[in-house]
Fold this sequence. Notes:
This protein is of the alpha/beta class.
Amino acid sequence: MSKVADIFETMEYGPAPESAERANSWLDDHGRAFGHYLGGAFTDPDAGESFETANPATGVAMARVRQGSPEDVDEAVRAARAAQPRWWALGPHGRARYLYALARRIQKHARLFAVLESMDNGKPIRESRDLDIPLVARHFYHHAGWAQLMAGELPDYEPVGVVGQIIPWNFPMLMLAWKVAPALATGNTVVLKPAEFTPLTALLFAEISREAELPAGVFNVVTGDGRTGAALVAHPSVDKIAFTGSTEVGRIIRSETAGTGKRVSLELGGKSPFVVFDDADLDSVVEGVVDAIWFNQGQVCCAGSRILAQEGIAVALERKLRARMETLRMGDPLDKAVDMGAIVAPVQLERIRSLVEKGRGEGAEVWQPTWGVPREGWFYPPTLCTNCAPSGTLAQVEIFGPVVVMMTFRTPAEAVALANDTRYGLAASIWTESVNLALDVAPKVKAGTVWVNCTNFFDAASGFGGYRESGFGREGGREGLWEYVRPTWEGTAPQAPELSAPVPEDVPPPGSAAGAPAGAGGGDTPAAGGRSVDRTAKLYIGGKQTRSDGDYSMAVRGVGGRVAGEVGWGNRKDVRNAVEAARKAQAGWAARTAHNRAQILYYLAENLDARRKEMAARLASMSGDGKGAAAEVEAAVRRLFTYGAWADKWDGRVHSTPFRNVTLAMNEPIGVMGAVCPDELPLLGFVSCLAPLVAMGNAVVAIPSRVGPLAATDFYQVMDTSDVPGGVVNIVTGVHDEIVPTLAAHDDVDGIWYFGSAVGSTDVERASTGNMKRTWVSYGRSRNWVDAHQGEGEEFLREATQVKNIWVPYGE
Ligand code: ADP
C-alpha cells in the first residue's frame, strides 16, 4: 500500500471515481428498458423491436431501447402537431416559464445527467460535468429569454410548426439542448431522435420535462437508428428537419427533403485548421491542442484536427506536444482525474484505426505515447501524424477520433490557403500574439467559427454552424432563431399562378442559315419580324457583353405576340463562364468597403433613374401596361436606394458570452451566388435579387425573368455606366430548364436563390447537394415584390450573408 509520503514523491494520481449509483438506480427503476416518449408518456418498452446501448468503457450493455418504426414516428409527429397550436398560443411569457423550469431542473439533476452521459458515451466525467451539462442548462436559460422577448424582437414571425430533430452521439445532451431550446422558445413542438449509441440522457430529459409539467406532445423522443431518422425526415407532417451528423447523411437529408417545403438546417462534418504562427505562446498552444483534438476523444465535429504550424516553430511544437501527450491520462470515464475516455462504439474505433493505417500507408509518420490504452472497453490513444501531404487521407478525411495531423507553412497567405484547403468550413483556431495578424487572417478563413488563441469555446449567446460542406444554419444566439421561424405573411401567401414557360424561338444570327440548335425543342417558328429588331441583347459576363456560346438568340414576345426584342440563348458553357467570372471578382468585391458598395448601388439607382423613360417603354412593350411599367421602374430605383442604404448598416454583433471574450458575430458574404429571378415584374424582381446580394459583397450570376428578360439586359447598360466591377454581376439569358440546373449543380457556386415554380424549386434543392450550397427557393409561392415587408429588407440580407463568430479572449 502506498503511503502519503510515497505519493508526494511520485506525484501520481490515484483513482477518483465518481459514483454511478444514482444513474444505475435510475436505470433499474425503469427496468433497464425504455419505450419512446410520446405525447407526455413512455410507451411500452416491449411493444416492438429493440436494441441495447452499451457503456463504451466496459462494453457492457446498460439498457434496452426501442427501434422506432415509421408508425412510432407517425404517432410522435401527431402528438407534436396536436400540441403545437396551444404551445404557440401560450405566448412568450408562458413558454419562457417552461424553458426556465427546464433549465432549473437540469441544474438540479446535473450530476445524474453528467454521470449517465459519461456512462453512455464514454466521455470523461470532467467534461460532461464541467462543460456539457452546464452548457445545456445555459442554453435553456438563454432561450427562456428569447421566448420572453419573441413578440418584441421577432414581431412579424411565427413558428415553422413541428420540428424533427436528429442528433449525433458525441454530445448527446448538448446537441439536444442546442436544438430543443430554440425550437420550443419560438413556439414549435419537437420530435427528437437521439443517436442510437447514446439515447439515455434524452430519455432522462423526457422524464424531467414531465416533472416540469411541460404540456404533453410539446417534446417527444423516438429512439432508433438511421432508419428511424429517415422515417422522421420522410414524414409529410414535419415542417422542419434540424440535423447534426455526418456530411453523408446531411446530403441524403437535403435531397430527400428537396421540394417538400420542409425547412432544413444541417450541422455537418469538419476538418478544422489549427493555425500556429511563430510568435504564438507555445505552451498555451499545446494546451490548446489538447482541448482541440483530445477533448471528447476527438469526437467533435469542430475538432482542430489539422495543426498548421509556421516553419520556425514546428520542431519545437512537435517536441512539446509529444511530451504533453505522454502525460495525458486515459481510462475510466467516471474517474475525475482522467483526461480521455473511450471511443463510443467498436465501429467507430475500427474506422479510426483503418484511417490511420491508410495514412501510414500513404507515408505519414504516426506517433503515439509510450503508455498503453486500457484493455477493456474501446479506447484509442492520442495520435500525432506528421509528414502528410495536404491532399492525403489524414489531412482531408474527417477521422472523428483523437488523431491530429501537423503540417507546416511559411507565410500568412500560405496558412490561409492551407486552412481553406478542405471541403468543410466549420471552425478554425488561430494562434498568434499579434492581434492584427489574427484579425487579418480570421475573415479569410472560410469557417463559421474562428477562435483566436483559444479553441472549442461554445455558448448559447453565440451562433455555431458551418460554411461550405459543413452545412448551413446556425445554432445559438439571435442568428440561430431564424431557423425556427418564418415570416407570418408566408403562412397565407397564395401560390403564384403557374406561367407556362414561354416557348423559345430561335433567331439565327444574321447571315447564317442555321436552324434550331440541338436540344431546343419547340424552337420551330422563326421569330416573325425578329430580324427587323436591330439589336440583340447579349449575355453579360465578366463585365462584357458576350455572344452566347452557341451564338443563338431567342425572340422575346410582348404585347399581342409581337417580338419585343431578342436575347442571347445561353447554354451550360455560358453558365460556367459566368460562374468563373463571378469567382474571379468576388473576393475583391467583398474586400471593398461597405461605403464603396453603397456608393455604387446609389449610382446604379441614379443611372437607372436617368433612363426611366426608356426602361418603362421597354417594360411596357413586353407587358402592355404603361402605367405599371413606370411604377415598376420607380420601385426599382427605390429598391436600389434601399440596399445602398443597407450596404453599410447590416452590422454584425458582439455577443455577450460568459467568458473574458469579445465574440464578434460578423455578417459575411456567402460568395458566388446564383439568382433565378421571378418571372413577374421583370425589372423589380431582378433588382430585388441583385441588389441585396451585391450590397453584401457577393458576386452574382443572375438568370432573369423568362417573360421579361429584356428588362435585365437593358440593365447592363446601366451597370456599365455605374462602376460595377466586371464579374460582380453576370447575366445569362436562355431557357431556364437548360441553364438553371447547371447553375444549381455547379460546385463553385456557394448559394442559389430561386423564385419560381414548385417543380423548379425541387430541382434546385436536389441539384444543390453536390457542394451543399445554400438554397432559398419560393416553391411557387407568390411574393408581393412591391411590398416593403415581402419585397425587400432583412430577410433578403440574412439570405445574402452568413454569420461568422470570431472569439477573441482578453486579459492574462
Ligand atoms: P455520425 O457520424 O456522427 O454518427 P451520422 O450522420 O451517421 O453521424 O448520425 C447522426 C444521426 O443521424 C444519428 O442519430 C443517426 O441515427 C441519424 N441517421 C443516420 N442515417 C440517417 C438517415 N438516412 N436519415 C436520417 N437520419 C439518419
